Amino acid sequence: MDAIILQILNGLDKGSAYALIALGLTLIFGTLGVVNFAHGALFMIGAFCAVTVSKFLTLSHTIIDDTQKDFLGNPLKVEVPYIYDIFGQATGDAIIDWAVPISILFAIPVMVFIGFAMERGLIKHFYKRPHADQILVTFGLAIVLQEIIKYFYGANPIPTPAPEAFRGSFDFGAAMGFDANTIIYPYWRLVYFAFSALIIGAVFAFLQFTTFGMVVRAGMADRETVGLLGINIDKRFTIMFGIAAAVAGLAGVMYAPINSPNYHMGMDFLVLSFVVVVVGGMGSLSGAVLAGFLLGILESFASMSAVLEALPGINQIIIYLVAIIILLTRPRGLMGRKGVMEE
Amino acid sequence: MMGLTKKDFTLLIIVACLAIFAPFILNPFPEGSAMAQFNAGYPDLMQRLVIFGIFAIGFNILFGLTGYLSFGHAAFLGVGSYAAIWMMKLLTMNVIPAIIVSVAVAGLFSLLVGWISLRRSGIYFSILTLAFAQMSYALAYSVLTPITGGETGLQPKYTDPRILDGALEPGQTPRANLFGLDMKQSFELEVADWVFTFNAGYYVAAAVMLIAFYLSIRIFRSPFGLMLRAVKSNQQRLNYTGLNSKPYTLAAFVISGMYAGLAGGLLVAMDTQVGAERMFWTASGEVVLMTILGGAGTLIGPILGAGFIKYFENIVSKINESILHQWFAFMPDGIEDFLVAIVYPFIGKGWHLTLGIIFMLVVIFLPGGLVEGGQRVARLFKRKKPADDKPDGKTTPAE
Membrane-spanning residues where (chain A) (predicted)? Predict the structure, then answer.
C-alpha cells in the first residue's frame, strides 16, 4: 500500500511538468491551430530565468576578511555577494534564499514578452500554411533558442537550489499512520505539485469565468464567426499565446530546483509532452491535464522494481506504448472532441 | 538513356562526376596553407557526405513526394546499423551481406512502423513516428542490451564466430572489406602542395549512392511517383476517385525506410561500430533539416542539404577563436575584437545556431530549399539578357 502511494506521489511532479507544458501546447493548438515545436524551448527558457535570477543575486566580489585566518595566520579572501553590501548579510541571505519566487516574478513578463514576439513575429505568418511547415519552422526556432541559451550559459547543467525552507523531505508515512521513513517525499516536489495545480486551476478559471476567456473559447470553436461579430479575435489569441508561454515558463522556473537546468531539457520534455497532448486529445485542455498526470503516474509505477523485474525497461517505453495504443484505438484521445483533427 | 530523359540523365552524370572527383573538388586548397582547414577531402567526411546523402534521398521519397513528415527515420538507420554489425559479427567482415541484410531488416521494421503509423496523417503521423523512434531508442539503449550493446554500443571483436571468415589472431581488430579490399585502404596522390586521398570505402559508398540516386530518379518519374504526388496535393480527393492511397504511401514509407537502413549499413561498413545515440530523435530531426534545406521534393536537393550540413558539422565547427583572430588580424585591434565577438557565436561550437537560423529562413522564405534559391538566382541572371531566352520560340506551357 505504502509503495503504491509513494509511486503516485512520485508520478505527480513529473506529471505536473507534463501537464503544464501540454496545457500550453494544447492552448496554442486549440486557439491558433499551430503545432508549436518550440514550446519545450519556452519551458527551458523559464528554467533559465531561474538560473539568471539566482546568478544575479549571488554575484559577488572578493574581499579580504581580517576576522578569518588561514593556517598560516594570513587573512582569508572571501566572496561576498554585492547584495550583502546593500542590504546587510541577514536580509541579503533572505533575498538570495528566495531566488525561485523572485524568478517567478521575473519570468512572467519575460515569458509573456517572448510569447508575444514569437506570435507576432513568426507564428502569425504560418496560420495558413500546412502543419508540416509549422512544425518545421518552430523546430528551427527551438534549435535557435536552445543554442542561444547554450552560448550564454554553457552546456553543463546548472544546479539551482530550492529555497531553504523547502529543502529536506516530508515524512508521509508517519503522517498517514504507516511506519515512519517508508514514504519520504521532498518538500519542493510537493510545492511543485501544488503550484502546478494552482496554475492549471487559474487557467481554467480564466477561460471559464471571464468575458475574455469566453470570447477565446468561442474563437476556438469558430474563429470566423467571432471575427464577424466585430471582435478582434487575433489580438486575444496573441494574448493567449503569451499566457501559454508564461505557463510553460513558470513550469520551467519551478522545475529548476528539481533537476538542474541544461540547454536541451526543452527538447527532452517536448517529445513527451506532445505524446501527452495526443493521448489527452488534441485541443482538449482538460484532456492534456488528465493525460499529463496519468502518464506521469504510470511512468513512476512502471519504474517500480517489481514491475521492472517482470518487464525490464518498461519504464522507458510505457508512455510511448500507451500513446501508440491510444492513437490506434481512439484517435481523438481520451477527452478530445469528435471530429477535431481526427484524420 | 537508362530510361531517363535527357535532363535527368545530365543530372545523374553531374552527380556521378561530383562523386567521382570529390577528392579533388573537396580539396581545393594546398596542404599547409591557411585555408587548408576548409578542405573536406578526407575519407571520413567524404563517406559521411554520401551516406547521409543516401539517407536524405530516401527521406525525400517519403516527405518530398507524399508530404508525410516523419520524425522517426533515425530508427531505421539505427536498425540497419545493428543488422549490419551483427552480420559482421556472425557471418563475415565482407560488407556485401551486411549491407543487404541492413536494407532487408530496416525494410521489415519500417513495414511494421509504417503499417501502424500511416493510419493517421498530419501531425498525428509525425508524433506516431516520433513515438516509435523514441521507443526503439529506449529499447536499444536499455532493454535490448544483449543485442544492441546498450550504452557502450557494438563493434566486431576477434572473438566473434564469423562463420565465413577464417579465425583471426588474438588481439587483431577485424576490418571491414569488400572481397579483400580493405575499406580503410587509401591511395594518396601528391601533386605539388596538394594531397588527394582516394579511399576504397568512399568509392564503395559513392557507388551505392549513385545507384540509390538513380533509383530515386526512376521513382520520381514513375506512375508510382505521380501517385505519391497526388497524395501530397490532395489525398481526400484521391480517395474520392475510388483509389486506396494507403498501399502507395506504405510503399513510399518502406522504400524510404530501406534507404535509411542502407545508409545505416554503410555507416557500419565504413566505421565498424554502432551506438544507440544514432537513433535519438534529434538524429531524425537532422535528416529533416537536410531534406528541407536542400529542397524537399527536388531530386538533388537532399544530397545538397546533406552535404551542406555534414560540411558545416565537420569543418565550420572546428573554427575557434584564435583562427578568427588570425582572419581579422589585418584590422585595427578594436574592430578586430568586435568582429570576432560578433562572428564567434555563429561558428565553431555555435554552428548549430547558424544552422537553425538558415533552416528557419529557408522554411519561411524559400520553401523549395537551396535548389529553389539557385533557380531564383539563375532566373535573375536570365532576365537581364532576355534575348537569349527566346531564340527557338519555345514556351513553357501554363500549369
Answer: 16-35, 42-64, 98-123, 190-216, 237-258, 270-298, 310-328
